[in-house]
Amino acid sequence: MEYRSIAIDGPSGAGKSTLAKRLAQELGFLYVDTGAIYRTVGLAARRRGVDPADEKSVAAMLPGLSIIMGYGEDGLQRMFLDGEDVTSAIRENEISACASKAAALPAVRDFLLEMQRKTAREHDVIMDGRDIGTVVLPQADVKLFLTASPEARAERRYKELLERGQRADFDQVLREVVERDRRDTQRETAPLRRAEDAVLADTTGLDLEGSFQLLLGIIRERLNIREGTYEK
Ligand code: DC
C-alpha cells in the first residue's frame, strides 16, 4: 500500500504545527513535527556543553545520541533523548536558538533525514518543517508553504510564552524571530524556501479557523478527498 504525504513548510510562528496537528486529526494522518527532532539535537548539545554551531563537535556527538520519535496514547508526537521524554524540555525558549544553529549543519541534516523519510514510508503523514517539500519528501502529494509577517508571528509566539507562564519581552521575541528567519533562509544546507510546486498560504490576516479551512480545502482538492471520505 502506498501512503500519502502532505508537506507543510514555512518560517517559525506561521501556525504550521497547530494547523498540521488539526489537519492530521481531521484526515486521519500521522502528524510529524520535524522541528521537534532538530530541537532534540539542540537540547542534546546544550546539555553536553557542545557549541551547537560547531560542526566538528556536534558531528562527534551525534553517533552517541539516542533520538526516538514516538506517539502517545493521545496520538501526539513525543521526543525521547537517551531514553528521557524531552517533549516539554525542547520547547524552552533558549533551545530554539540552539536548534536553529544545529539545523544549519549538514551533518545534523544528514543524520535526521532517514528518520523522517522512514516515517513517511510507513504512514500517511502530514509533516511540517522547513525543507519537507524541497528535500525530505520532494514527491509529496500536497505541498504547502505557510507564512505570515514577522510581526504577526512574533505576536503569536509572545502570547504562547506568556500562556506557558514564561517571561517574555515582545521586542526581544520579534528580534529572535527575524534572526531565526535569517539563519533558516540563508544557511547553505537545505535553506527554508518554497518548493516551486508548493501552494503559498499567507495567514497574516487570518485566524486559526480561517487558516484551517483554507488548507483543508486545498488538501481535499489535491488528494481528491470528499468530506468524511478518503478515496485514493
Ligand atoms: O519549527 P521549530 O521552530 O520547532 O524548528 C526548530 C528549528 O529547527 C528551526 O530553527 C528550524 C529548524 N528546522 C529545520 O531546519 N528543518 C526542519 N525540517 C524543521 C526545523
The strands making up the biggest β-sheet line up spatially as 2-6-1-7-8
What is the molecular shape?
globular
Largest sheet: 5 strands, parallel
Number of strands: 8
Radius of gyration, rounded?
Answer: 17 Å
Describe the protein's architecture and organization.
It is globular and about 50 Å long. Strand 3 and strand 4 (77-81) form a beta hairpin. The N and C termini lie close together (11 Å). The protein is 49% helix and 16% strand. The protein has helices at residues 16-27, 34-48, 55-61, 93-103, 106-122, 132-136, 150-163, 170-186, 208-223, and strands spanning 5-9, 30-33, 67-71, 77-81, 84-85, 125-129, 142-147, 199-202. It is α/β, with parallel strands linked by helices and 232 residues long. The chain is built from nine helices and eight strands. The longest helix has 17 residues, at 106-122. The strands form two sheets. A five-stranded parallel β-sheet has the order 2-6-1-7-8, sandwiched between helices. Helix 1 (16-27) crosses helix 9 (208-223), helix 2 (34-48) packs across helix 4 and helix 4 (93-103) runs parallel beside helix 8 (170-186). The site of 2'-deoxycytidine-5'-monophosphate (DC) has 13 residues, from helix 2, helix 4 and helix 8.
